[in-house]
Amino acid sequence: MKADMWRRAEPREVRPFFESIDAERSLDASGVRIFEDGEFSTETSFELDEVDFQRMSLGVSVRIAEAKSWIGALSPSDLDLVLIARHGFLKRSRLLERVNLSKDVPGQWEIGTEVLAQLGGGRNTNITLAICLAEDRPEKPGSPFIPGHWLARKTFVLRSRTMPTMFDLRIRHDEDWIAAGYPRKTYYAVDYLGGIDSELEEGASVATVWVHADAHAKLTSGALGDAMQPLLASEIIFSIVLESYNEWKNQSEAAPDTPLSNLLVKLGGEHPMPLSELKALAAKPSHLRATLQDRLSVLSAIR
Q1: DSSP assignment, residue 77?
Q2: Residue whose C-alpha is closest to residue 236's, from 217, 259, 268
Q3: Which residues contact 223 (CB under 8 A, 6 or more apart)?
Q4: Greatest CA span in the chain, whole angstroms?
Q5: Distance in angstroms (rounded) separating the CA atoms of residues 11 and 195
């Protein structure tokens, strides 16, 4: 199977494969290097400033535990090691590398700048190293049987300090916009769902953002996309703040571990922005918009 034909056959976590449970920690020693002159780290979450993304040079070190300690009834030829990059905001995924474990596995993989350019320059990108089933096997309870079922994985999350993630982005074509009651060439629309001051389940969001398919194609390619992404994000968050205002306008502070408290951290710099300051900004929308443009580095992206 060629690399570009590899498919992820597990749309959500289906765990555990109890026959291969020992494999789950087999990638724990793998790490990531953010800068060319930096060292590899086994940490999985990184918050970076805009200047960091400009000089980023990603590399992933591959460290797999000795196979006999976790492989069980499988053989190395049954398994592939894959490297995947995914950008949640842009809804783009790339299979970067794939090698069968029966072959020589490289000690590290480099992720080129051209790949990062297709994924928002690395901003809010997940880099996943995984051991997956390579081919179909007879179905058996507790054992992987479909190509793409993973036995082990380690995901490195690269977050921008200035771009909160509180919305889910989806695509609409002309006919979809019309069916939803919008003009056919609508650029984007925000459907605020609620719950900005509530602790959300993993994977949940407070808003669904619809973007025209033509605009999405531009956002995910080239310099124009790099320049427009922070501006669009600032406008989306602007809409969410205003639409959610009635939920938190009478509070003195945001509840911890909520999208609202996370937003205050992102907007505040060294210290979280007080909720009273966000209220004042919401009362002056032009000031709110300007603050978001500043915090999301909109101007520096236009270069």
Answers
A1: G
A2: 259
A3: none
A4: 64
A5: 26
DSSP state of 287: H
Tell whether omega for the bond before 16 is within 30 degrees of 0, i.e. cis.
Answer: yes
What angle, rounded to 10 degrees, do the helices at 259-268 and 285-295 form? 70
pLDDT per position as a tens digit, 98-147 = 999 999 999 999 998 888 877 777 877 889 999 988 887 766 665 666 77
Angle, helices 275-283/222-248, rounded to nearest 10 degrees: 100
Exposure string (b/e) for 150-180, b if CB count within 10 Å is 16 or more? bbbbbebbbbbbbbbebbbbeebeeebbeee
Taking each helix axis from N to C end, the angle separating 259-268 and 222-248, rounded to the nearest 10 degrees, works out to 120
Question: DSSP state, 241?
Answer: H
Task: Specify the residue for token string 């966000």.
Answer: 278
DSSP string, 62-75: -----GGGT-TT--
Q: Token pair for residue 130? A: 């995984």
Residues of the chain below pLDDT 70: 1-20, 50, 88-91, 138-145, 161-165, 201-203, 220-223, 303
Spatial neighbors of 179 by CB under 8 A, at least 6 apart, are none
